[in-house]
Amino acid sequence: MLQSLLEDRFKLVVRHSTKNVLVYELKLVNAGNKRSPGLHELEPGTCPPGPRPPGNPGAAPCGGFLSVRNHLSGHRVTISALTSPLSTILQRPVLDKTGLSGEFDLELYWMADENLSARGDSVSAPPDVSPSSLFEAIKEQLGLKLESARGPIDILVVEGAEKPDEN
């Protein structure tokens, strides 16, 4: 509906294009080992209806992520969905090359880096986690790794738009 509104009101003309750009590929550290300490695979199921349980307002919503400066938590999320917050934090597209399917709970803590797009105050890691750089934290805590590569990304190209007529 929004796309047709923009096309009608602004005479918007767009097309999709693919471009090879610098990306990070998210992969398993050990191809044979799909388990890691901070990545907990869940049994198939759905999110419970209604709001989050009281008492933990800082918890990630079911099926989503909560990101605070140097902490990312996910509840009942896919690894392919994890690429979105990582892309935002790293300011570069992240592609899922893990081959993992299913839903997971995850907690990730890393040392705050002023060069990454972080907002807010730092979050203290639990005593059993010693935060390191984001790249090392992903390896140590999730059993995954980020490798720099070039990859195809879908790009939306705006070919034309006009000012709308007054109402």
Q: What does this 3D model show about the protein?
A:
This protein has one domain (13-45, 60-152). It is 18% helix and 34% strand. The chain is built from three helices and seven strands, in the order αββββαββαβ. The protein has helices at 2-10, 79-90, 134-142; strands at residues 13-28, 39-41, 64-68, 71-77, 94-96, 104-109, 144-160. The strands form two sheets. The chain has a four-stranded antiparallel sheet with strand order 2-6-4-3. It is globular. Residues 117-121 have low confidence and may be disordered.
Sequence stretches where pLDDT stays below 50 over 5 or more residues: 117-121
Distance between the termini: 20 Å
The average pLDDT score comes to: 83
* Largest beta-sheet characterization: 4 strands, antiparallel
Beta-strand portion reads: 25-35%
Helix fraction bin: 10-25%
Molecular shape:
globular
Order of helices and strands: HEEEEHEEHE
Structural Rg:
19 Å
Taken together, the total number of domains comes to 1
**How do the strands of the widest beta sheet line up side by side?**
2-6-4-3
Determine the number of helices (DSSP H or I, runs of at least 4 residues): 3
Total number of β-strand segments? 7
| Class computed from helices, strands and strand pairing | alpha+beta
